[in-house]
Amino acid sequence: MMNKISSITIIGYGSQAKTWASNLSDSGLNVRIALRSNSPSINLATNHGFQVLCFDDEEYSNDIHKSELIAILTPDHTHLEILNKVKGCISKDALIVFAHGFSVKKENLPSKFPFLNFGLLAPKAIASEMRELYIKREKFPGAISPEYCQNQQSSEEKLTELSKSLGMSPPSKVTFEEETVCDLFSEQSLLCSLLPYGIRYAFEALRQKNIHSEMAFNECLYESKLIIQTIEKLGFKKFFEIISPNALYGGQKAYASKEFQSLKSLFSRLIDDISNRKFFEEVDKTDFNKLRNNVIDDWSNSEINQAWERFHQQSREQSNEALDNKKA
Ligand SMILES: NC(=O)c1ccc[n+]([C@@H]2O[C@H](COP(=O)([O-])OP(=O)(O)OC[C@H]3O[C@@H](n4cnc5c(N)ncnc54)[C@H](OP(=O)(O)O)[C@@H]3O)[C@@H](O)[C@H]2O)c1
């Protein structure tokens, strides 16, 4: 028997929070946004039609006490600080939901707040895509865990219902540890390393041989997108059945090379560093602003990003021209 969830308080109004607020509200939930009293997002959330509570208002403490469902959707490193601020006004029956298990595992939140119920509802999609897919009535994958809740069955039902209202396909049931390791590892091994940097290295190798930049760009970025879509649609076996003999031989030549095979030992080191918490220690010592500025500088100066800007500008101009011709 499903619990009927009718309202949610979302802490934060960033990428995930905006998407959760819009999707859940469009699914019929009453959504309230909780922010710092000096938050630059108060006007935005109010203009989007949401009731806004402020952390430091007295009204907030009364109101949050009535919240049965609270989602903390701020950056992971802020969760401990936020819980320390609001712990006194959270009802012991409330379910506190995270979109990623990182802070719960890194800070060991269940041992610091044993009287609170922590659940996980982790979308496996970036926020902007989750909104677009919801609007198109298409689903995205995700995972839930009622692991750190007093009443696991009722919390699992609430998380399942919430996942449906968010636009998720039936979620996998996992542990916080599994979701945290998986998410961090996929970012490190593929999503934020091999994919963007592999595409860039391949583009740069072609440019060193003076291949035309548009040709190299389409070959490396556009075709990568199509290949991922094809594998996702047809499966790996079918993909290798349908590629050309040259593509098959060439791919296997690279795959069998010593350099490519060394990825296995890299992946094994990355996953060990997450499991043995070395990665958490590294994160604590990192100056994220400095790191982001350095990475952004490097990509802004890269030829592939400049090519992306040029081709996007051209395609915007072409679609405006086509629109003008249609109107004329
Ligand atoms: N981004 C994604 O697509 C994605 C995907 C899957 C899971 N997740 C998870 O979703 C959660 C939210 O990530 P996000 O990328 O959406 O975060 P985000 O956009 O960086 O969150 C920004 C929001 O957090 C608030 N905030 C920042 N520091 C705060 C503090 N110290 N106290 C109170 N509020 C603070 C900001 O407040 P102001 O408005 O006042 O500045 C803003 O509203 C994380 O657990 C993340 O791992 C994210």
CATH architecture of the largest domain: 3-Layer(aba) Sandwich
| N- to C-terminal distance | 59 Å
Q: Tell me which ligands are bound.
A: NADP nicotinamide-adenine-dinucleotide phosphate
Number of domains: 2
Write down the overall mean pLDDT.
94
Radius of gyration: 23 Å
Q: Helical proportion? A: 55-70%
Report on the structure:
The chain is α/β, with parallel strands linked by helices and 328 residues long. The protein folds into 2 domains: 7-174, Rossmann fold; 179-286. The protein contains 16 helices and 8 strands. It has helices at 15-26, 42-47, 58-65, 79-86, 102-106, 109-112, 127-135, 152-166, 176-208, 213-234, 236-242, 245-256, 258-275, 278-284, 288-300, 303-327, and strands at 7-11, 30-35, 51-54, 69-72, 95-98, 117-123, 142-148, 172-173. Strands 3-2-1-4-5-6-7-8 form an 8-stranded mixed sheet, with helices on both faces. Helix 10 (213-234) crosses helix 11. 25% of the residues are buried. Bound molecules: NADP nicotinamide-adenine-dinucleotide phosphate. NADP nicotinamide-adenine-dinucleotide phosphate binds next to helix 1 and helix 4.
